[in-house]
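Quick look at the format.
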Amino acid sequence: MEFSGEIWHWRGPAPYHFVTVPEEESADLQEISTAVTYGWGMIPVTVRIGDTEWTTSLWPKDGGYVVPLKDKIRKAEGLEVGDVVTIELTPGGPV
């Protein structure tokens, strides 16, 4: 699955950066979520942005999902809040 989205920052007790999965792709993920989730609605995925690939889990949010971006990933690709990125995402697999 491939989509584009804007990087945003959550300033909670544990600040983090995310990209929101678009509605259509979130609906597709919901269809397979029971087969791949390991609890709390988290879905393990392999993600690629540019030349950087890593494993993580999608977080459920507002009826859809968000992709968490570690600082290490953002720095490797030179990304900042507000940048629009193209994400290649493959559900399933270990995290």
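Next, a different chain entirely:
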Amino acid sequence: MNAISPAAHQTPSDEIDLVALVHALWAQKILIALVTLLVGAVAAAYAFQVTPEYQVQSMLRPAAVKDLDALNRTEVYELAPEEAIRRVGAALESYDRRLEFFRANQGLFEALREPGRSLEQTFESFNQQAFKMLQPDPKKTAGLSNYVGIQLTYPKGVDGVALVNGLVGFALASERERIAADLQTIIQNRLNQLDSKIAAARASYDVSKEARIAKLLEADSLTRAQLQDELKALRQQLKTRRDNRITQLDEAIRIAKSLGIDKPTTPSALGEGERVAQGSVIRTEVNNQQIPLYFMGSEALEAERNALLQRRSDDFTEPRIAQIAKELLLLENNRQVEVLSQRENEDLFLKDLAIWREDAARLRNLQLDVLDLKLASIDQAAIEPLRPVKPRKVLILALGLMLGGMLGVFVAMLRSFLRPKSHPLNSAV
């Protein structure tokens, strides 16, 4: 019974202690209230003394296709609305662009200046904490229109609306300037490429023309040399033929004189002189053999030989010599070479030159004001906020009172535990 009695009395003892604890806390309710009020006052002081922070944001959506049509119709620079807003978002997120905007608008950041810090250092700290990019989550916004935005949390005294709207405008303007510079560079590069093509075509034409002229002149020289060789050979042939004829005539003259043939005759006529004519005779001579030359008679043969010996040229005896002389005369002037050499505007003969000049003229006459190009549509501009986002005074005050109450209860419990107490039930046992 004695071993069981302590366990039997355990529950009443706990209930007495819990009741006693409640009575002890109630007895110290003033202390708890004071601690609660003190902590609440500290929280209230913090909530009302801390510098309020405000939040603004600006949202941009892709521009319409018609807004970029003028740029795309140049056939030089293509920019889709999705690519344009991506580039604007990259410009907004770029540290360099923000720093450029800061340097160009230092008055907007003057309220952030801190002692011992330069404006660049102040901007560095502000840039890391205040800006936040707003972009859609590809997993959650599939099929929805694309957008990009920037959010700024700034302390009181800073013109956040002007800062955000100014940064958005600066990003759009800087991206337009970048596109304008890229467009100008691309146009200049294409013009340089067209000039290089034209220069190369002209050089190729000059080389081909010179090669063609050289080929024509070479062909003329070869033909002229061949004709002169042929003419020389023909004249030599004619001279040999004349010498051979003179030799033949000399031999025939000797035979004719030995036969006593002075006048032209025939073999049959030569034999009639020895016969006595009886009656009327009609004789027909049929002979298919060539009559020897000496039957011409020595007089005719000597006359022909004298003529051949006095001849100074045999050219008239060969028609081909006259033809060669004609061809040599024609070769003295190559009219095709003269025409090629006398061309004044050789660009007219360059292939594709007209197309290249048309492209160059179109590129030089492009009239596009890129600075008025609409790269993105401002769906929401930054406007003055109605209330600060920090501090949240009601929440801070509520948390202060709650923490104060908990601290007051903890202090009261600590005092009650540390204070000496008497236990009647334990002493009775």
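The chain has two domains: 28-182+368-422, 199-271+289-363.

See the schema section for token definitions.
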